[in-house]
Design brief:
about 160 residues; mainly alpha; two-stranded antiparallel sheet; 6 helices; 2 strands; about 65% helix; globular
Length: about 160
């Protein structure tokens, strides 16, 4: 077996970059009034407004109970609201409130600042292509994951 340097593996590098970007996000100036985890949840809700709590948990790769607690906290701050699904009373869908808009704008600004810091290590001429390549990798992995999940569901049926 060849020698493997974990620091050269894409997954390791991406996880480490994500960790460092999270730390940089937390160190940025300005008060958000919510935690980094809550900011992440609010961002996901804004991009998937009206989605079921369970779907957001899946997107964020967190347990449903964890997402429920985080949602409770944001609901207490009047940043999100749960609405019953008209077709299934057991299902709760997530929506942002009007109070969430300025908080979300602060999140996007902070993420832009962190992205600017991170991307300053890449030559300007390559930044856009770098992002396009990362988006391509994400889309490919999503398709692969969906296909694998469909195949597993077919086998179980």
């Amino acid at each position: 077996m060849p020698d493997i340097d974990p620091t050269d593996l894409l997954g390791f590098l991406i996880q480490d970059v994500a960790r460092l970007m999270s730390r940089t996000f937390e160190q940025q100036h300005g008060e958000l009034s919510i935690t980094r985890s809550q900011a992440r949840l609010l961002a996901y809700i804004s991009l998937n407004e009206g989605a079921k709590q369970s779907d957001i948990a899946l997107l964020m790769d967190v347990q449903k109970i964890t997402l429920s607690k985080m949602t409770d906290d944001l609901e207490t701050k009047n940043l999100v609201e749960r609405r019953a699904d008209p077709t299934d009373r057991r299902v709760r869908k997530l929506y942002m409130t009007a109070d969430a808009k300025p908080v979300l704008e602060g999140i996007w600004q902070r993420l832009l600042d962190v992205s600017t810091i991170a991307l300053s290590a890449v030559p300007k001429s390559r930044r856009r292509q770098f992002l396009v390549d990362l988006m391509s990798i994400r889309e490919h992995l999503l398709r692969t994951l969906m296909l694998t999940t469909q195949q597993e569901n077919t086998v179980q049926s």
